[in-house]
C-alpha cells in the first residue's frame, strides 16, 4: 500500500511540474527561428502588467527574435499577457505554415510579407482552403482569422471554408493569420505566384458552390480615392444570382456626378452600371465581374466619411421557362402576365428586365423568361381590339368573338379576356349568342358557369350588365360605336375555351333606343330582367326596351320585383307595356302611381325611359312567368260545366220534392 501511494504521488507531482514548467517564470523556452523569419513578442493591447520576457537574464516588455533563442518570463501565465507575431519576409514561393509549439498557448499572428518585383502583382491561391469574408469586428468559429492587405490598405478579414478561391493584390501586399491561444495551427498550403499587372487595388475570385448559397462581401476598409476593387464570380450551370446591397456609405466627392457605382460585366453583354441606392441585378445566369470604384474625395470638414459597401450574392438553382415570339400586329392584342403573390419566389423577366407584371403588345418581338413559376402562380389577362371604321369593310353577318392567338408558351392561368369592339361612327353594336342564349347575372346571384360576361361602354366605362351563358336573351343592341366585352373565367383554366364562339358581334345603323334586349322566355323557369347598369340607375334621358317573344299559346305574368323611382323636375319616368301585333298599349305608368304587375296575353314590348334631370336613381328588376292559355280556358269551361250541373241537380231535386 505504501509503495502504491508513493508511486501515485510521484506521477501527480511529475505531471504538475511538467505542466508548470511550460510557462512559469522559472521555465525556459527554446525557440527555433527559421531563416527570413522574425518573431515579435509584445504585450497584448490594453494590458497593464509588470510581466517581462527575459533573454540571458535581460528582461524587457517586448523582444524581437531573429535566431534560435532560449527565453523565459517573469510571470506564471505569460500567455495571458503577450502576443506572438511570426513574420516572414519576401515570400517567393508557396506558403507552408509551420507551428511554433513553444508558443502554442499564446495568441499568435502569422504574417507573410508579399513583395513582388517592380510593377508586379501577387496572386494568392486559396483553392485548398477557401475563404469567406467577415465584418471587421467578427471572428471565426475555428479561431483562425485571415487578413489581407494591399498597399497598406486592409482588403478584408476572412474565415476558412468559403467560396473565395484567390485574391490578386497590386504591388506590396501582406497576408496575416490570427490564431487564438491554445488553438493548434490548422492552415493548409497557400499558393503564391506572380500575376499580371492589374489596375485595381485587389481582384477577388469567387467560385460559388453547386448548391443554394448566400455570400457576404465588403469593400476594403478605408479604400483610397480613385481606387477600385473587382470581384470575379464563377457561377455553376443552371444557377442564377441575385445581388442585394445591405448597407453602404459614400464619401463627399469633388464631382457629384462621379459618385461610386456598381458596375457589372457579363460575357457577350454590355456592361451594366447601377447606383448604390438602386435595384441591383436579379436572376442573372453565367459568370460575371463586379467592380466598385471610389471617387476623388473632397477634403472639406467635418472628417471624411469613406466608401463602404456591404453586399450579398445569392445563387439559386432555378427551373427556367422561356417563351419567345411575335404578336401579329393585325390582331391588335395585349397580353398581360401577372404574379398573384408579389412575395412568391417566381420571377418574370421580359427582355432581361424583371417585372411583377409583364405586358406584351402586338407588333413587338418578345422574350419572356420565367423562373420557378408554377402555372397557378401566374394570372393571364388578354385585351384585343376589333375595329371596323368603314361600313363597306364591316361584316354584314354576325362575326364570332374569339381569342385566336396561338402562342401557347406564355405561362399563366387565363383569368379574363376583353374585346374592345369599335364600329363606324354613329353605329350600334349587336351582340348575339349563337348557341344557348344569355341571362342576367345580378350581383346577388351566382352565375354557376365557367364564364361571366361583362358588357360596358368603352368611353364612359358604364356597365351595361353582367351575363351568363345559357339563358333567354337572344340579342343585345347598344346605341354606341365602342363597347367592351369582358369574359371572366370563373372556374376553368383552359385558354382554349376562349377560342369557342360563345358570342358574336355585328354593326348596324343607329337604333331608336339606347338599349334593346330581345328575349325569348321559357315556360320552365321565370326570366329575370334588369335595367342597364343594375344595381346602379340608368343614365338621365336614357331609354331601354325589351322585346319579349312568346309562343301563341302562351301568355306572361310580368312582375315588378324591385323598382326605384327618382324625383323628376319635368317629364316623369315612364314604364310602358305594349303588344307587338297589333300594337296595343297594355300598361303605362303615371306620375307617383303605384306600379302593378301586368298579365300580357301575347308577345310584347317593355319600354322604360328615365327623366332628364333625376334626383335619385331610376332602376327596375322584373320577372316574367309564362302560362299556357289552354289550361286557363279549360279551367273556366270546367267551372261553368260544374255550376250548370249543380243548377240542374238542384232543379231535379226540387221537381221530385214537388
What topology does this entry show?
Blueprint: H1 2-23, E1 29-31, E2 37-43, E3 53-55, E4 58-60, E5 63-65, E6 69-73, E7 82-88, E8 107-114, E9 121-125, E10 131-134, E11 144-150, E12 153-160, E13 164-170, E14 173-179, E15 191-195, E16 202-207, E17 213-218, E18 228-234, E19 239-249, E20 261-266, E21 272-275, E22 284-285, E23 288-293, E24 308-317, E25 320-326, E26 333-339, E27 347-350, E28 353-355, E29 357-361, E30 365-371, E31 378-387, E32 399-400, E33 413-422, E34 428-432, E35 438-440, E36 451-457, E37 463-469, E38 473-478, E39 482-489, E40 504-508, E41 515-519, E42 527-530, E43 543-548, E44 554-564, E45 574-579, E46 585-588, E47 598-600, E48 604-609, E49 619-628, H2 629-657
Parallel strand pairs: 7-8, 16-18, 31-33, 41-43
Antiparallel strand pairs: 1-6, 2-5, 2-7, 3-4, 3-6, 8-14, 9-13, 9-15, 10-12, 11-12, 11-14, 13-16, 17-24, 18-23, 19-22, 19-24, 20-21, 20-23, 25-30, 26-29, 26-31, 27-28, 27-30, 32-40, 33-39, 34-38, 34-40, 35-37, 36-37, 36-39, 38-41, 42-49, 43-48, 44-47, 44-49, 45-46, 45-48
Describe the structure.
With 658 residues, the chain is mainly beta. It folds into three domains: 22-242, Jelly Rolls; 325-505, Jelly Rolls, CATH 2.60.120.290; 512-631, Spermadhesin, CUB domain (Jelly Rolls). It is built from two helices and 49 strands. The strands form eight sheets. The chain has a nine-stranded mixed sheet, with no helix packed on it. It has an eight-stranded mixed sheet with strand order 5-2-7-8-14-11-12-10, with no helix packed on it. Strand 11 (144-150) and strand 12 (153-160) form a beta hairpin. It starts with a helix and ends with a helix.
